[in-house]
Specification:
Helix content: 55-70%
Strand order of the largest sheet: 2-1-3-4
Distance between the termini: 33 Å
Number of helices: 18
Number of strands: 4
Shape: elongated
Length: about 400
C-alpha cells in the first residue's frame, strides 16, 4: 500500500503542475453549470419577458371592419394599431417598416360572421427572433373573439356551450412532480456528469502514460523495485480521483447555480431539491465509481500504447463520441431501465440515474447495473495491467 500511495502522490504532484489537467478537472466543471443554468437561463428569461412586454405595432389594412376584435386590438395594453392604405404590400410593411404584423380582413368578414359563416383574416408576421411570442399575443385576442362569437351563436339557438362540447375530460396525473421532473431532466444529469468525469480523467491519463514516455520518466519508474501492478494501481487511483473530483465539482457548481436561479426556475426548483438529496447523490456516485475505474483503465491502456502526448490525444478524443451515443439514448423518454438495458455500459447508468432522481427505483435492474459496472471495471483493470506489462506496447517505436 505504501508503494501505491507513493506513486499516487508523485503522479498527483505532476498532474497539479499540468495546466490542461487543471482546466479539465477544475475550471470547466466550476464554470459550465453557472454559465449553463445561470447565464443562458437568465438571458432567455430576460428576452422572453422583454418580448412579452414589448409594444407590438400592428397594421390593419383598410377597409377595417367594425367589430369587437378590432376594438380589442385598439384597446389592448401593449398594442399599437395603425391603419394602412388598401393595396399595400403586407410583406414589404413587415420587412421594411416598424410594423411587427399586418392583419388583412376579408372584405366580407363582418357579413360572414353575421350569417353564421366563418370570417377570414390573414396575419403577416416574421417568425424569427421573438416573432413566435408576438404571434401568441395576437392569437390570444383572436381566440377570445372566436370564443365570443361561438358563445353568442350557441345562445341564439337557446343552448349553452355544453351543446357543442358534450364531453369534458379532466386528466389527473398519478406521477409526482419529482417523478415528472426526474423523467424530464434525470437523463441530462448523468449525461453532463459522465462527460465531465471522462474529460476529467482523460488528461491525467494521457499525461501519466504518453506524457511520461515523452519526458523519459516512465523508464525510471518501471526500473524501480516497485511491482508493476502497484505502479499501475497508483496511477489508476489518481486518474479515478481526478474524474470523480471533476464530477464532484460539477455537483457543487450545479447546486450553486440552482440556488442562485431558484426564483427563475419557479416550481421546478421545488422538485430539484428532493432530486438532489444526499441519498440520491450517494447512489449516483456509487454507480459512477466503477465506471470511472473502467474509464481510467481504458484511457491508461490507450495512453501507454501511444507514442506521444499528441498521438494519445488523437486516439482518445474520438472515444467521446462512443460515450455520447448511449447517453443520448438514455435521455429518450421511451428508454426504461430493464434487466436487458441494465447490462449495457453507460446506458445503464443513464437509465438508473433517471430512475434514482425520479424517486422510483427498480432495485432488481439497479442491482444488475452494479454487477455489470463492477464486471467491466474489473475487466478493464486486469486488461490494463496485462497490456502495460508488455514492452512491445510501452516502448513501441
Amino acid at each position: 500500500m505504501k508503494i501505491i500511495w507513493a506513486v499516487f502522490k508523485k503522479e498527483g504532484l505532476d498532474t497539479i503542475r499540468d495546466r490542461r489537467s487543471i482546466i479539465a478537472m477544475i475550471v470547466i466543471p466550476m464554470v459550465i453549470f453557472p454559465v449553463l443554468f445561470g447565464g443562458i437561463g437568465f438571458f432567455a428569461i430576460k428576452e422572453t419577458k422583454k418580448a412579452q412586454e414589448k409594444m407590438v405595432n400592428i397594421g390593419l389594412v383598410q377597409p377595417v371592419p367594425d367589430n369587437s376584435l378590432v376594438t380589442a386590438l385598439k384597446g389592448k395594453e401593449g398594442f399599437k394599431v395603425t391603419e394602412l392604405e388598401a393595396g399595400i404590400d403586407p410583406f414589404d410593411a413587415v420587412e421594411n417598416t416598424n410594423i411587427d404584423a399586418v392583419i388583412l380582413f376579408d372584405v366580407a368578414f363582418n357579413e360572414n360572421i353575421s350569417i353564421k359563416s366563418a370570417g377570414e383574416l390573414t396575419i403577416h408576421y416574421r417568425s424569427t427572433g421573438n416573432g413566435g411570442i408576438m404571434r401568441g399575443r395576437i392569437n390570444s385576442l383572436v381566440n377570445d373573439y372566436r370564443q365570443e362569437v361561438r358563445e353568442s351563436r350557441v345562445q341564439e339557438l337557446g343552448y349553452t356551450l355544453d351543446f357543442i362540447n358534450p364531453v369534458t375530460v379532466e386528466f389527473k396525473d398519478t406521477a409526482t412532480e419529482q417523478e415528472q421532473v426526474g423523467e424530464a431532466i434525470g437523463g441530462l444529469i448523468p449525461y453532463i456528469f459522465i462527460m465531465l468525469c471522462f474529460t476529467g480523467a482523460m488528461y491525467p491519463a494521457i499525461d501519466l502514460g504518453a506524457g511520461e514516455k515523452e519526458r523519459g520518466t516512465l523508464e525510471t519508474l518501471l526500473t524501480s523495485s516497485a511491482p508493476l501492478v502497484k505502479i499501475i494501481m497508483g496511477k489508476l487511483l489518481l486518474i479515478v480521483c481526478s474524474g470523480l473530483f471533476a464530477a464532484s465539482l460539477s455537483v457543487t457548481s450545479m447546486a450553486i447555480a440552482m440556488v442562485s436561479m431558484g426564483s427563475m426556475l419557479g416550481k421546478i426548483s421545488s422538485s430539484i431539491g428532493p432530486m438532489l438529496n444526499p441519498l440520491n447523490i450517494v447512489l449516483f456516485f456509487s454507480l459512477l465509481l466503477p465506471l470511472t475505474i473502467f474509464f481510467a483503465s481504458f484511457l491508461m491502456t490507450l495512453s501507454f500504447f501511444a507514442k506521444s502526448f499528441k498521438e494519445a490525444q488523437s486516439i482518445v478524443s474520438p472515444m467521446v463520441a462512443v460515450i455520447v451515443f448511449p447517453l443520448l439514448f438514455g435521455m429518450m423518454p421511451w428508454m426504461k431501465l430493464t434487466y436487458v438495458t441494465a447490462m449495457v455500459p453507460i446506458l445503464n447508468i443513464s437509465l438508473a440515474s433517471k430512475a434514482i432522481f425520479s424517486g422510483n427505483v427498480p432495485w432488481g435492474p439497479v442491482l444488475v447495473v452494479y454487477i455489470s459496472l463492477i464486471s467491466i471495471a474489473s475487466i478493464g483493470f486486469v486488461a490494463c495491467t496485462k497490456l502495460a506489462g508488455r514492452e512491445s506496447i510501452l516502448f513501441r517505436s
